[in-house]
């Protein structure tokens, strides 16, 4: 929001215009949810929740990894771990069953990507974290 104010300078015939460019607009609910729920678990990966879909047992996610955009589609399974000693305590974790497609953005389109095992494992670990956070948030609300 832009606001302006004219200040009179004492002892001078010149007025001084001051402009305030601070952004006081409210942050959208979707952005706030995305920031709090979808924590990025690695410095190399950026998750784009506004371009992603998470279903009951499938996902289609957009991420940026090491300077390249990827589209990942696959199937996951929720596993509930209950405490033997505390009957009311349970933890939901996610296990990725399979990736249906891993596409990298190159030359204006997405093409099949073959990742080295180290990079594939890092992406898998981070996607499991994103899906686990999503499932926990759904259960809380």
UniProtKB/TrEMBL annotation:
<feature type="region of interest" description="Disordered">
    <location>
        <begin position="1"/>
        <end position="23"/>
    </location>
</feature>
<protein>
    <submittedName>
        <fullName>Uncharacterized protein</fullName>
    </submittedName>
</protein>
């Amino acid at each position: 929001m832009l606001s302006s104010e004219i200040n009179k300078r004492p002892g001078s015939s010149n007025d001084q215009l001051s402009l305030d460019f601070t952004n006081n607009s409210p942050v959208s609910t979707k952005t706030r949810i995305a920031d709090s729920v979808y924590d990025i678990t690695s410095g190399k990966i950026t998750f784009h929740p506004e371009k992603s879909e998470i279903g009951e047992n499938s996902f289609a996610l957009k991420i940026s990894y090491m300077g390249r955009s990827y589209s990942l589609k696959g199937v996951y399974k929720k596993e509930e771990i209950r405490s033997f000693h505390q009957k009311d305590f349970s933890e939901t974790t996610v296990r990725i069953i399979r990736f249906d497609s891993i596409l990298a953005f190159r030359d204006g389109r997405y093409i099949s990507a073959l990742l080295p095992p180290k990079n594939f494992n890092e992406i898998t670990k981070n996607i499991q974290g994103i899906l686990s956070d999503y499932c926990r948030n759904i259960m809380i609300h």
